[in-house]
Amino acid sequence: MTRKLPQVEVLHINYLEVGSVHANAADVFLYLTAFTSITHLILGSHFPSVTVFARLLCALPRLSRLTCSGITFATRGYAQGAVIPPQQFTLTHFDANDRDHNLDVFDFLISSLIISNTQYIGLDLQILFYNDPGSFCDRIQRMLVTAGPSLTKIHVNFHFEIPRAFVDNVNLRYSVKLEVLSLTLFRQSAAQLVNIYAVISQASPSSLRQVLLVFPDIRDPELDEKVSTQIDQLLSTPHYRILSTVRIEIRRGHVQNKNLEDAWIELLSTRFPRLCARGVLQCAHFA
After folding, report:
1. What is the CA radius of gyration of the chain?
2. Low-confidence ranges of the chain (pLDDT < 70)
3. What is the pLDDT of residue 170?
């Protein structure tokens, strides 16, 4: 009999040897009865199929957080209904990047409705997203629609620019109770700010409490004045009555430069005067 481990809450599986589990075995994850206390599962593994991956999730009765980093499948694709989640299964937090076969993970979470009660979605978009933005944006939008009013926080980490495909195909209007919108950018340009404005403007103003923007550390602080004014005006309207924080962080480079920090603080205060006057703007927190 498997001994239970009641104190273990986080399970990190970083490698499964190919062939170590069999896709059709009914008790393939029977040993996981030892981990009935697991609430957070972190995966970066190879699975025979999406079905085996799905069985793993459903074998953990208290699972509420899932982090996927580079999952691969020997057999791609998920057949809807292949695995029926337990009736009380609720995944409140989901983090994933765009590596390997994570699109299949998205498909399972959507078709099984597991993500329908998710409160937080975090996405780290790297190379594969930019190679095929259409497929990823389609899945992201379907996740947002499925999560619907349950979603209260979303964080998207863009390793390059925000592509136009994201602005055109991903809409936050279904997340009517979204409270926190967080965007991290590794490149900064006038076009980026236009796309940031487009994403922010989709969020429901009646529920939005916090906006977090993380910019790259660039030598010459610059924010397009016209678009900055649009963002400042938008978030200062009465519709955003419960908005309490607009936090803009500048990622610190290898060399700390006090003059550069001061220049960023002055620029942000100038570009967003209304948010400053409301006491909402938190500027230039250097990470």
Report:
1. 21
2. 1-6, 15-35, 188-190, 217-221, 252-257, 284-287
3. 95
Is the Cα torsion angle 129, 131, 132, 133 positive or negative in sign? positive
216 vs 161: CA distance, rounded Å: 11
CB atoms near residue 236 (< 10 Å): 18
At 222, the amino acid letter reads: E
What is the per-residue pLDDT for 4?
A: 58
CA distances from 158 to 192, 196, 226, 259 (A): 11, 11, 23, 27
Q: Are strands 46-49 and 10-13 parallel, antiparallel or unpaired?
A: unpaired
What is the Cα–Cα distance from 230 to 188, expressed in whole angstroms?
A: 17
The DSSP result for 2-62, as a single string, is PPP-TT--EEEE----TTSS-TT-TTTTGGGGGGTT--EEEE--EEEEHHHHHHHHHT-TT
Nearest alpha carbon to residue 35 among 68, 65, 6, 64? 6
* pLDDT value at residue 262: 80
Determine phi and psi for 275, rounding to 5 degrees.
-65, -35
* 51: its two tokens: 């079905």
- Name the strand (E) or helix (H) holding 108: helix 102-111
pLDDT of 278 reads 93
Cβ–Cβ < 8 Å for 11, 36? no
- Rounded to whole angstroms, the Cα distance separating 287 from 276 reads 21
Q: Quick one: pLDDT at residue 199?
A: 96
Phi-psi region of 66 (alpha: psi -120 to 50; beta: other; left: phi over 0): beta
- Please count the other Cβ atoms lying within 10 Å of the Cβ belonging to residue 254: 5
- Look at residue 61 in the predicted model and tell me its pLDDT: 84
Burial class (CB in 10 A: 0-12, 13-18, 19+), 7: exposed
